[in-house]
Design a protein that fits this description.
84 residues, alpha+beta, YefM-like fold, 44% helix, elongated, phD/YefM_antitoxin, YefM-like_sf
């Protein structure tokens, strides 16, 4: 049975083509992700550095929000600004 996997990019490249000229692939992609295919299946995604950094910032925000939700309603400690 063949399993179809979604591709989360509008552009694709084979691993072979990526090996031949990675700089051209990166330049052509601009600010968009590229799905790297192995035997016509997504094996990896090539993501621009700026997009990856924004994604990491977003994930950190989500993790911090989860910590806040977990601690909501917990014990609190009063502190004055002078004590900080």
């Amino acid at each position: 049975m063949t399993v179809t996997r979604a591709i989360y990019a509008t552009a694709t490249v084979s691993i072979t083509d990526l090996r031949r000229n990675p700089g051209a692939i990166i330049e052509e992609a601009g600010n968009e992700p590229v799905a790297v295919l192995n035997h016509n299946r997504p094996a990896a995604y090539l993501v621009p550095a700026q997009a990856f950094e924004a994604l990491m910032d977003r994930l950190e925000d989500i993790e911090l929000a989860e910590i806040v939700r977990q601690r909501r309603g917990g014990k609190s400690v009063k502190v004055s600004l002078d004590e900080l």
